[in-house]
C-alpha cells in the first residue's frame, strides 16, 4: 500500500472513532438515550486497528477502476451509458437480489455485555453491594459468633434481588420497546438516491442501489455509494470530512487525478456530501464493499454517548450516593469508637451493617433513572406522532429552554409551492401573451434552458400537478416555461457546453448552450443566466422590449426595472431576472479555463425579462408565530431573499408588527436609553472556568429580560451585506430587538447570527431545509430540519419536522418544557419521602438511642416499590396552565437541581415529613404502650433487657416490646405512604392505590409480619397522616404566596425555591 493510502485509511479510521458517538448514529443504539434517524452515514465506531495483513486494506490498494477510461469503467461494472438510459429495472432487480442491499451491516450485538449492563449497571451495582453486605449478616458472620442467623436478613437479601431483577427486566423491555420505535422512525427518514434507469430519472431508496447504476449528484445530497464521476459541472465539490476530517471541500472532476483510488478527485465516496455543483456518476461499489464498509469492518464495537441531561442526572446520583456512603461510614465509625465504649451498646456489628445498608438504600432515589428514561422516551414517542422526529433525547429538554427561533422563510414559513405569476419586459409589467411572439419565444427559451428542474412524469398530468424534481424556484420556472410551450423540444435543440448551478453565494445560475441548428433567436453559443436582479443589474447593458427589439439599458428602463422589483418585493414576491449573451466558447480547453472564461462572460448581458414568484405562507404560520409570542419566544427570519420581500412576508405572518422597521443606520442613531439593558450579573464560576478551558473569545453574558425586550417592541431589518461591518455594540443592540429580519444572508452570515445570539445568553433554535442552512443548524442549540429538505440539513439538525410544518416545533417546545417540569416533580417527590424521611430514623436511633422507627426491609419497600409507582405516574402529569405563557428558563440559573431545590426538599418539605412521621411513631408508643418521648430517648442497649424498663418506671416484657416495635415500624411506614387529592392525572390515584395495597399487604399479612418485622396497626393510623399531609400542603402554599407577595428579588424570594 502506498504511504498516502495508508495515511488516508488511518486518518479515516481515527476520524470515525472520534465521531461515532458524537455526531453519527447507529442503527443499534441504547434507545433510552437516543432516538436517531438513519442518514446513510457510517454508524460504527472503530476501536482498534488490526495488526498484520488485512484483506480489505489489500483490496483497496489494488483498486484501479478510477484510472481506466470511462468506457472501460462502464464495461467493468456492467453499466449502460447515460445516453442509452442506464440500467433497466429487471437487471437492477437481479443484481440487488444477488449482491444484497446497499447498506452497512450493523455491528454485532454483544448481548452478554448488554445483559450485564441491565442487571449490574447504575443503581443495580449499589443494590448488589447492599445485598452482599446484608447476606454477610446471615452467613457467615452469625455462624462465626455462634448465633442463630435471622431469617429477616435473608428476606431482605431476597427482596433486594427481586428489585434488581425487576429493574434489569424493565431496562431490557425499555431497550426492546424503544428499538422498535426507532426502527419505525428510521423507516420514515430512509435516504433516497437519484438514478437514471430505463431512460428516465427517478428517485429510489438508497438501499436498492446496485453496481452499474447511474446516479445524479445534486447540491445538498449524500453520495449513496462509491462511484466514479462520468460528467460534472465545473464547480462540483464534495465534503469528505466524514473520512478525512478535513473541513475544506474537495473539488471534483471526471478525470483521474491520482493513482490512488482514495485520493483521486474523480471518485465519490459513500456518505460524503455534495456541497456545490452537480454531476452524474456510475456506481462501482455498494454496501460493505465501499470504502465506508471496509473501514467499518475494522470496528470491534460501538459506543453510545450519554446525553447532557443524563450526565446531569448521573452527577446528581453520584452526589447523593456519595453523601449516603459518607453518612453510613461515619455512623459506623461513631458506633465503633464511641457507642461501643458505652456500658450498654445498642447495636452489634450485624445490626450496624444492617443500618449502614439502610442508609445507603434510603438515600438513593432508585425510581429516578427509570422515571427519567420513561419520561424522555414517552415524550419522544408523542413527538414522533406529531411528526417531530428527535435525533437525540437531550434535545427534548433543550427545546424547553429555547428563547429565540431563527427560521428560514422558504419551505418553513411558506408552503414552498412556488408559482411564477407576473412577468415584465424592460420594466413594463405584462403577461407573456401580450408581448410579441419573438419576445415570448426568447423568454420561453431562456426559462427552459436556464432551469435546473425536470418533470418526472409524462404529459398526461396537468402542468400544475405534474411531478418534478429540483429546487422549488426552478420548478416554478419550469412550469411557467411549459405553460408557454413544450420545454423538451427547446432543450433538445441545444447542446449544453458548460454550467454553473445556482448557489447561495452567487445567487444566480448560468449555462452555456450551443444551438444544434441555426436557431432563430439564439444562433451559435449563448450564455443563459437567471438570478437576483440586484446582483445582475450591474452587468446588464441591453434589454428586450415587449415588441421583440433589443434596446439599450438606459436610465429610464433601469429605473422602471428597479421600481418593478421593489414593488413586487414589497408584495412578498421573489423576483428573478432572466438574461443572455452570445459568446464564443471553447469546449476543448481545460476545466479551469472554461470556468474562468464563463465567469468573465457574465457582463454586457441582455435582460430578457423578470419574473415574480409567489410562495404563499402556510395557513398555520401566523397562529404559530402568535403562540411563540405568548410563550415569550422571539422569532427571527433569516433568509436569502431581498430585504423588501423578507419584510413583506414577515409582516404577513406577524413576525413584524411594529409600524416602523429600523435599519442599521436608524439603530445606531438611537440612544442607549431606548434599549433594554443586559443584567449586570457576573458569569457563574462554571461559565468562567469553561471560558478559560475552551479558550472562548466571545464574552459569556446573561441574556436580557424578555419582558423588557417585549415592552420596547422594536423591529429591525438587516441585510447580509451589512453584517460584516457590525461591531460588538451593534450586535448588543440588534439582539435586544423583539422583531428581527435578516435578508440576503449567506451560510457564513447565518452562522454568525446564531453565534452572536448564543454569545448573549440566548438558547437558539434554527430551522432550515437547504444545504446552505447546515452550518447554522449544527451550531444552534437546537437545529430543526424540514423532512423534505436536503440530507445535509437533516444530518446537521437535532430534530426533523417530517411534515415540514413549522407549527410542529411548538409542540416540541411544549414537550421540552413539560419534560423538565415532570422530572423536577419526580425528584421533589422521591427525595423528601424516599430519602430524608428514611435517613433520620437510623441517625436518631444511633445518636439518641431510640428504637429503630423504620427497618431496612421497609426502607426497601418504600424506595423500590411504594415510591416507584407514584414517581412513574408523575411523568404523565399534564402541562401546567402557564407552561406556554411563561418565559423560557435560563439554563445557567434554572438547572435541574440546585442549592435552593436541595434546601426545599431537604430542609423544608423533608423536615416536615420527617417530623410528622416521627410524631405519629411516638404517638403510637404513648397510646399503645404508655411510653413517652422522654422514656424512649437515650435508652441504647437497655432496650435489649427483659423486661424493658423505661426511666418513668414503665416496664414492658421483651415479647410485648418486640410486638410494639413491629407495629410502630408499620405506623412510620404508613405515614410515608403516598396519598392523593383531586387530580386530572388518573395515573396518580391508580399509582397511589397500588402503593396502598402494597402497604396493606406488608402490614396485615401474618407471614410477612414476622419476616419483615411489621405488625397490624389500628385503623386510625391510616387516617392520622392526612392532617399531616394537609399541614405540609398548607405550608407549601404559604411559601408560594410569600414568594408571589414579596417577589423573587426579596430576601424571602431568594431563600425560596
Automatic annotation (TrEMBL):
Gene Ontology molecular function: ATP binding; ATP hydrolysis activity; P-type sodium:potassium-exchanging transporter activity
Pfam families, sorted: Cation_ATPase (PF13246), Cation_ATPase_C (PF00689), Cation_ATPase_N (PF00690), E1-E2_ATPase (PF00122), Hydrolase_3 (PF08282)
Annotated Cation-transporting P-type ATPase N-terminal domain residues: 64-139
InterPro entries from the UniProt entry: ATPase_P-typ_cation-transptr_C (IPR006068), ATPase_P-typ_cation-transptr_N (IPR004014), ATPase_P-typ_cyto_dom_N (IPR023299), ATPase_P-typ_P_site (IPR018303), ATPase_P-typ_TM_dom_sf (IPR023298), ATPase_P-typ_transduc_dom_A_sf (IPR008250), ATPase_P-type_domA (IPR059000), Cation_transp_ATPase_P-type (IPR050510)
Residue spans crossing the bilayer: 115-139, 151-173, 316-338, 358-379, 826-850, 905-926, 986-1005, 1017-1035
Stretches of the chain forming a coiled coil according to its record: none
Main localisation: membrane
GO process terms (BP): intracellular potassium ion homeostasis; intracellular sodium ion homeostasis; potassium ion import across plasma membrane; proton transmembrane transport; sodium ion export across plasma membrane
The keyword Disulfide bond is annotated on this UniProt entry: no
Gene Ontology CC terms: plasma membrane
Location in or out of the cell: Cell membrane
Annotated keywords: ATP-binding, Cell membrane, Membrane, Nucleotide-binding, Translocase, Transmembrane, Transmembrane helix
Membrane disposition: Multi-pass membrane protein
Domain of life of the organism encoding this protein: Eukaryota
Protein name as it appears in the record: Cation-transporting P-type ATPase N-terminal domain-containing protein
